[in-house]
Each structure stands twice: as C-alpha cells, then as structure tokens.
Write a structure and sequence with these properties.
The chain is 20% helix and 27% strand. The chain is of the alpha+beta class. It has a single domain, classed as Nucleoside Triphosphate Pyrophosphohydrolase (Alpha-Beta Complex). The strands form two sheets. Strands 3, 4, 5, 6, 7, 8, 9 and 10 form an eight-stranded mixed sheet that branches. The chain is globular. Residues 57-215 form the Nudix hydrolase domain. Keywords: Hydrolase. This is NUDIX hydrolase.
Length: 224
C-alpha cells in the first residue's frame, strides 16, 4: 500500500542557511540558551554553566503502532518519510562510519499533541486523528490502547515526551491517507512489516527510529 503522493524525490536542496541571523525563540524548534546554577541542600551552589533546551511548538507527541493480525502473526504499518535532519548528517565526521543516506526514514505513525488534547482521552483522540491522517484508517479514540508512560528521546536537550499507543486494524480496509500537505510528505510510502522482522530491522539499524522499537517492545510485552 502506498500513498498517492509517491514521487521521485532524490535530494533536499538547502537554498539558504540563515542560522546566524535567525532568533533562537522562533521557528519550529525553539532553543532556550540559559545560564544555570545547581542549588545544594547545604545552601551552596555550583559554578555557573550554560544549558541549551530545545522545545517544540507543542510540548509532547504521540506515537501509534498500527497493527493487524494475519496468517503469519502481527504486522505493523510503517511510513517512509523525508527526514532532513537525518539526511544532513552527510559529510559530517562520524564516530562510526555510516553509508546510509537517510533521505527517508521508516517509522510508525506519530504526531504532535495539540493544546486541546488533555489527559488520556486527549492522547487517544490525537492518536486516532494521526492514524486517520497518516495511515488512512478510521478508528475511534476508545479503540486506541496506551502502551504505558511517555518517554524522553534526549532529555539532556529536548523537553518533548513521546506517548506510545497502539491500535488493532485487523480486517479493515484503509482509505487514502490525507497527510498534512507538507513538502516533507512528498513521496511518503506506507507499508506493512511482520512485527519481529521490523524489530530486527530496528536493532540492525535498517530502521533507526527509537519510538518504533520501543512501541514494538511494549506491545510484545503485553502479548506475553
């Protein structure tokens, strides 16, 4: 199954790097540059040090493992998305050489939580909306299962938590994923993979997406 936006994107061209003139408190990512000091129980303090904190426009996100049951067991829906940050690793000095280009990265359905999304009901609602938008399946919020607590991806830098969820779409026919109209969704490809195969691909680095691996492990833990 592929989205209707399938195309032959072969490169992402940087037209301008305006990092030197851009404010750090505007744009999709907001960088706060802070001077901090540790306060201790005995009343003393550490030396002053700098901290950079990266915030998203919305604080947190939801990741959804869309799965179905088939003759060979559980299968998981993934999306191949354009990922500029991963792609622009090219040419940088890497500790471990990596021949992959990462123009696209394979991962599960995910999206930012909105201001109106409150509590567990809000998580389920946003998960259902993302499944409809990115995978084409019409699911009800109450069908979404939460897979435990949210987690930080890089707590030393990013304030964002990702809340893992799952939904079973066995026997359902999807519609065409609408997407959000962004150029970053150009050429997005949707596919199904056996869950154990996908887990092995995460561990080998073929699918280098942490939320995908963690959601798979949490779902499998529930099945045991």
């Amino acid at each position: 199954m592929r989205s209707s936006s399938q195309s032959s994107v072969t490169d992402i061209e940087i037209l301008e790097d305006f990092s030197a003139t851009a404010r750090c408190d505007e744009g999709f990512l907001r960088v706060r540059r802070l001077r901090c000091q540790n306060r201790r129980a005995d009343g003393t303090a550490s030396k002053v040090y700098r901290v950079d904190v990266v915030d998203r426009p919305r604080l947190d996100a939801v990741a959804v493992l869309v799965y179905r049951r088939g003759g060979s067991g559980l299968e998981v829906l993934t999306r191949m998305n354009l990922r500029p940050a991963a792609y622009f690793r090219r040419g940088k000095d890497m500790t471990v050489p990596d021949p992959a280009t990462y123009l696209r990265v394979e991962e599960i359905v995910a999206g930012l939580l909105e201001l109106e999304d409150k509590g567990e009901a809000g998580l389920r609602y946003r998960a259902a909306e993302e499944v409809r938008e990115e995978a084409g399946f019409d699911v009800r919020p109450e069908e979404v299962r939460l897979l435990g607590a949210g987690f930080f991806v890089a707590p030393g830098i990013l304030s964002e938590k990702v809340f893992p969820a799952a939904v079973d779409v066995t026997g359902r026919e999807p519609g065409v994923p609408k997407g959000d109209g962004s150029p970053l969704e150009e050429g997005t490809e949707v596919r199904w993979r056996p869950i154990r195969e996908l887990l092995a691909m995460c561990r080998s680095g073929e699918v280098p997406d942490a939320k995908t691996e963690l959601c798979i492990l949490r779902l499998l833990a529930e099945q045991e």
